[in-house]
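Lab notes, practical 5.
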Amino acid sequence: MFLSAINMYGHKMCQDSLQKMILSETSIFDVLHSFFFHTNVQVRQAALEVYVRRSYIAYELNSVQHYFLNNAQCLVEFQLQLPSNHPNRSLYKFATVPHVESQSDILTVLMNNSDEKMQFQRMGILSAFENWTMLVNNFDELVSRFKVFSKNELYLKSQNFSPTPLQINSAETSPDFANRLDSVASHHRPAANLKHDQELESIASNMNMNCSVLSTPQSRKQSVAESTSSPPSSSSPSSCCCSSSSSYNDTINILNVFIRDFATDIDDESLASVFLEFVQAKKNLLKQKKVRRLTFSVGQKRQQPSFFTFRARDDYQEDKIYRHLEPAMAFQLEIYRLRNFSLELIPTGNLKMHLYLGRAKVPKGQEVTDFRFFARCIIRHSDLVTKEASYEYLQSEAERTLLEALNELECAFSHTCANKTDCNHIYMCFVPCVCIDPLKVEESVRSMVLKYGSRLWKLRVLQAELKMTLRLTPEGEKVPIRIFLTNESGYYLDISLYREITDQVSGETYFESYSHKKGPLHGRLLRTPYFTRDHLQQKRFAAQSSGTTYVYDFPEMFRQSLMKIWRNHYNKLSTLKQTKQAQCLSYQEKIKNELNNLMQSDFFTSVELVLNEQNELVETNRLPGENTNGMIAWKMSIKTPEYTNGRQIIVIANDITYKIGSFGMEEDLVFKKASQLARKLCIPRIYISANSGARIGLAEELKQLFQVAWNDKTNPDKGYKYIYLTPSDYQKIKESETNASILNAQLIIDETTNEKRYKIVDIMGKENGIGVENLRGSGMIAGETSQAYNEICTISLVTCRAVGIGAYLVRLGQRVIQVENSHIILTGASALNKVLGREVYTSNTQLGGVQIMHNNGISHDVVTDDFEGVFLILKWLAYMPDRLVRNAPLRLPIVSSCFDSIDREIDYYPTKMAYDPRHMLEGRCAHGGCWQSGFFDRDSFHEVMKAWAKTVVCGRARLGGIPLAVIAVETRAVELQTPADPANLDTDARSLQQAGQVWFPDSAYKTSQAIKDFNREQLPLIIFANWRGFSGGMKDMYEQVIKFGAYIVDALTEYRQPVIIYIPPNAELRGGAWVVVDPTINDRYMEMYADKESRGNVLEPEGTVEIKYRTRDLVKTMHRVDVVCKDLKEKIKALRAQCENEPTGELRQKINELEKSLEAREKQLIPIYHQISVTFADLHDTPGRMKQKSVIKEIIEWKTSRRFFYWRLRRLLAQDDLVKLIMSNSEQSFEDSLCLLKQWIDEIETINWNENEKLALWLESQLDDEKNLREDSFAWDRIKKLKHDQVFNHIKGLIDQYPDIAMESIEHVVQTVSEKRIKAIMDLLSVKLAEKNQKSSETSLLNSTPIRN
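Output from the prediction step:
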């Protein structure tokens, strides 16, 4: 491109080609330095100028001039001005105009202003040398080209020259550039003859300079001569004087020297040493010439050059922050925004990637707690044409750069301070201008971050920044855009888009939010430095280092999880409508608008609950981190797809950053009060466990004061007698006491020293909550949690750890979700090792990790992180009522059944062979990708306690939108793993096989526990019964299989919602398994159904045959049924009839032969007749017989069972709701109330008691959405009358029991009712009195009439 910029005669330079290289978005610095040493002088000078203009493209470049040293070495002199948004310019802003009174004052102000303006200007020189020796030989001449002016000279020059900044995009690259190159390229004169040309060529230079410190040709000639005749030395007094009088702000000259190569390959540190030694030797000369910065560049073939920068502010020591970074490019990397940190350069394998370790600047003597890595790079590329190409480039290049940054960060984590780092930061500056919508960029960035989210989190990269220039249309204006990404909590990616806006008055650049959502940097200046970690972030880092989320991040985590649930819901709706209404093109837009409106609404609110001075919980809004104890509670209101009007929950969480999350008296009180509030409101209670058990402590006020009474002071090994306080210390302690004693002490006189001592007897401590009182508080909240489990829905999330009382709390709450890296323990591994006297356990996870707690049923489910745990909590809540009720209609979260038609048949069919019962429940994807539907709504089944007692499957699901609890049976054999205990060398890991369709001790306990949990959630229950019985071996009997089987009966007896037992196809229910689920256990709520292919009896047919159809019975059947046997029997009988006595001789022989034939025939038929007997016994087990014997309610075919049970459940639920209302408004029992309801239904001709669908719809029509009676309904009138009768009978009974209360009641009525009502009462009393008198008269007359015979 350089050669093409020169015409074929080599006389003129094509400015357009150079302009293209200067403005090109291609990274050319890796090859540009090769042209500094081209054989063509024009190419060399063009390469130098392109380098200057490209490097300082963000600056205001005023002048670029080409010159030659005495040895014909090319150099470029340039003048630039700092851009308006440069941080150094912000230091010199004039707020007011200075007050002046004379011409001399005006001159002084102008000169001062001129001096301050010089702070914005830089005068630079760039030259390239073949080797180090050439640079050393020509360095003095190169530096001497800088001319130092006094302030008066600067002022006069500022009056003589007007600024004419050179535009980079102008046609003329530099004044008279082509003419000067012609003479040089044509003659190649020696250095002595070039001197005159330099003087002529530099005339145009000063025409473009404003107060330039680059000297005129004459002054420069004089300066070179002076430096040659008397070179400056470090011992020169004048030099020292000049150095001491110069300040860093006066140094405005910059020098860049490029070295092509060194004689031998040496590493960076060796190069830095060579340069440092040389610069220190030339330090006085540099100070004299006011050189602000000196940068050495070392070329590397087809790679980025290496850079070594030495600054005047550091006394010309190397600025290692800028190693391998062109200082002019540092402005684009915005290194100045890191000024709140002390930076350490981290070496990288990729010179384009700049990595720094930042230490927050703190006051002297204060410990640094904020460490973070900063990775920064500039991304260049070729010109982009189409929008599609821009998008593809942006994705691929950003992803490649991100991976490079992560690789460098992984290498940097070998640093000693790497484990202290947090909030690591990645900055990317995209030079190319791409044509794309910023919102599309946001989507691309979000997907990329989520793709590498785990790796970013592992490297603690919590912040990223992307700088780019975009066009919305190909012809549109360029818009500088910033994208900021933060993920401080570890679960929520926050992306903010900003424009860069320059204020026309101040020249400052600030951020303006691109969208209506105002980000945290909206209105902030571009030069605002990165903030160091605040108190809240330190707490967040401490919590995350412990493996959990900071407690005040959980409300936002609930909000994000709720947003995810709503997005999934609308996505599901969108898919449904796409399938059924493909013609409705506007539906997608409607769904999107509904979701956006929801996100803008108050679909989630939370308020913190705090103890006041009276130890009562009050709602307050305080800033995160202001808590004074380690237990935080919130009342949250959430709108879910099930409860669009909202529901409330109470959330309680440990703050692990406050005394490691331990339980003290105040923490226990907060926990208890919050749990009591949940019970009072009958709403779910969520507990997030991250604790260290009950708090332990010591009296710190005594710890530094007590003394020891030794048996022998000179020999402590002989032991001690007691510990004590001196009288003075004892007096201090007593003076510090307020309400209670800190200690009890006994005054004694020491026998040896005869001094007074206060022997310590009891230590109470000044601070409450350091000992056994915390155990009392732990017992209090344990009892509260047990009571809460029985009254409301309780869910626990174990994140990080649950120790001691924390472990008991989550178990007492029953429904436990455990994060994979957490543990639930009673005592730590280190404490157990001390008790055992050897290193047995390696970690707490070994004792109570998910491999233990999930496999033994303590944890109901396991999640990968806290966010998934909160999301699972909300999924569980979707099946649970918003509040629990007692003796009132249930408030189940029933949703629309539009997602899965209730009228469809069930595709999956259970076989006689072993199968996965989950396929029966939720369906499966069959071979070929075809979906086979299951019993429940698709994607609604969620299993709990999956890893424990695998022969039973339990969970929650939906049937037509109705939430249900479900228990099913595993038909396949499973493996029970028992781990070895490292503390007992005699134990070893064992693997036991458990047969399917059998209740073992663990699976029986799991069944009973699940039924108890579901009952307290007020969910209807359906059990797919397929048990052959209980295991009855010696080991199982020892492990209490009978006890756990009885627990199932106990749990079903207590169940207060409909329970449906269904025996699916090819399933069987026998013996004790039938007994524990028989509907007579709870005949109010339980019903049993069976498929036509199911079976049920005491024993299996084989067992029944073994007892009731023995071999002799089989033989009898053969003799009765088999023709051959019958014939043989008749022949034998006939032969025996021929003789009166015992047969003998030939007759006996014939009989024996026939008997042998009969025996052979019997042996031949035994197998087939055994099968016949089994079939015969099996026919006793059919659903037909079950139905005839009324042990099941109905035979329901599997294919259509979904629809039947849906309407049956709706009917039972609505029926039970009305029965409860009847019972609560009358004094009738359940049986009487049910009969009364049946009588009401019989009065309605259009409804039949046995038609589930019609009856369910009618019953539901009697109640409104809040489960209250409709005022205009049929049931309203009847129940109102029942209530009237109940109240009347109650009052009547009271008056009969307490006659004296009648008059008082009348007096009360008279005082409270209106006059009209009083008159009506008086009239009524008069009528009743007249009737009573008449009746009395009739009775008297009847009694006075004589009786005649």
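Observations recorded by the TA: The chain has a mean pLDDT of 83. The CA atoms of residues 305 and 772 lie 69 Å apart.
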